[in-house]
């Protein structure tokens, strides 16, 4: 072979290994950061539980928890010491003598729904209580809904006010003993209000910026308490969310997808990850309903490419998933020596780390120490791997490492990271592959990424409000159904 061609191929192979290796190292680092964050949150179990119930892992937002006493309307109302109650002690003399209080934070917006409630302890002289949402610059001596960028459902007349002093017919009045709620549906871009657990009406939300949960009192002895979610709501917000998700799923289910397309997507996933036995069974079961097809992705990654080295990829995945890293190394040296010829490559690092982890899993700590000293030194000196080397070494510092912040390394998911990295590296050795990035993900995963991008684009068009695409949520809702 020509020397220049050999040098070019070597350079290309190095670039491919760098790209694929870097990707899976970054995946590992994400797991490490997530595990460390979870470990730190153990000291705050109540806060952690609330966040887990209300928010997804990747979109945590600070929730309103109390009333903002620093920016209230002054002496026209008194906020209780708990910062969850408001009392109007005086006789109002003017229309602008309103006791208005916003929440300490705006309503979180990267979700499907936000909701809060007030309970009317005393309707006072006139029952001029209101609940609503207001913008950050709202004048805190005006009823919610009287000024632009605000909405208010008023108790004395049952009217909805939206940006002007004249209200519109909306719902029933409310008084002492009633519980009234206000919510934002980010999917439909509507605000909704409830009375005693029942929705009374909705209004289109035309404000794209943040909105603060807001309550106002305006006649002598009016008193309300606010619930931002610390206590159970009177309105069944979980059932409402489930209903809204059902509407979304119903819309999706009306879309017709050709059977051979869904078959091809599933089949390409099994091919991509080397699940040869499952693929064979899938083909057998599918013959009665659908003939095999040649599924071609838009990027030109054909079925033949997905079938490349299928049996060898299956064998290596099985070895890594069962913790037999030494045997996996042996097979790689025999079948794909170019992948492991650079002993300091990312793929070699992943394999050596997993071998160390397997020794710890087996309780062979002395052997793990010796192995780490031998293999990790060269990687630690490179600098690119030192954080991950420290994670591995930290397993030896705990009596019960599985319960530590690095305990995630002992789980099967870490084996999957290594197996996926090896699988992608083998696929990249196929001469027909034009772009090594195509080896990182299956067609199904690209589809899911596209769905996520569409959800995020929709959210962007709504002023960065609304939830993203969460596959686990959809799967869980399917199980419940």
UniProtKB/TrEMBL annotation:
Residue ranges constituting the B30.2/SPRY domain according to the UniProt record: 45-233
InterPro entries tied to this protein: B30.2/SPRY, B30.2/SPRY_sf, ConA-like_dom_sf, CRA_dom, CTLH/CRA, CTLH_C, Gid1/RanBPM/SPLA_SPRY, LisH
Every CTLH domain range: 309-367
Positions of region (Disordered): 35-71
Record field: compositional bias (Acidic residues): 52-65
Coiled-coil regions, chain positions: none
Domain of life: Eukaryota
Pfam families to which the protein is assigned, alphabetical: CTLH, SPRY
Gene3D superfamilies on file: 2.60.120.920
Protein name: Ran-binding protein 10
Biological source species: Nicotiana sylvestris (Wood tobacco)
Taxonomic classification: Eukaryota, Viridiplantae, Streptophyta, Embryophyta, Tracheophyta
Protein encoded by which gene: LOC104220086
